[in-house]
Every structure is written in C-alpha cells, then in structure tokens.
Amino acid sequence: MKALFAAVSVVAMLVAGAASAGDIKGAIKSVSGRTVTLDNGQAYTFPAAVAGQPDIMAGLAAGQTVTLTFATADNVNTVSKVAK
User: How many domains does the chain have?
Assistant: First the structure.
C-alpha cells in the first residue's frame, strides 16, 4: 500500500510540474497576431479578446517594458494579465 501511495505521489508531482505560473518583466521584442516575444526570446500567447471586455493586448508594441502574468501548460505560455 505504501508503494502504491508513493507511486501516485510521484505521478501527481510530475503532472503538477507540467503546468506552472509566474510573472516575467521584459521589453517587447515583437508582436505578431496574439503572440508577444520578449527580449529574453520567449513567446507569450494572449487569449482571444472577449466581446464587451477590454483586450489585454491593446496598445502593446515593440520596445515597451511590461510585466506579464502567465501560466505555462504544454509548453505554451498563456498571458492572463499585463502591467505596463
């Protein structure tokens, strides 16, 4: 029983490690469609704009310094908040 619990715990930790969240501050290198690439070379994807709500991508341009709040799942960094 202890071996089964240990195995389940290891799998749970691996799955939890597959998704992560965080904040990153950097200068925008490029904007293409719904993707922003920062000066660190990492790409960050923005969700589609929701009708009746402000688009969190509005006004973003190369050269701006921003802080992005994002979650990573399946090697995709999806932004949930932008601070300029």
Answer: 1
Q: Is residue 64 in some structural domain?
A: yes
Per-residue model confidence (pLDDT) at position 20: 85
77 - beta bridge partners?
Answer: 72
CA dist 29 and 16 (Å) reads 30
| CA 59/CA 38 separation, integer angstroms | 15
Q: Can you give the residue range of the structural domain that contains 63?
A: 20-83
* 49-74 pLDDT tens trace: 999 999 999 999 999 999 999 999 99
CATH code, domain carrying 34: 2.40.50.320
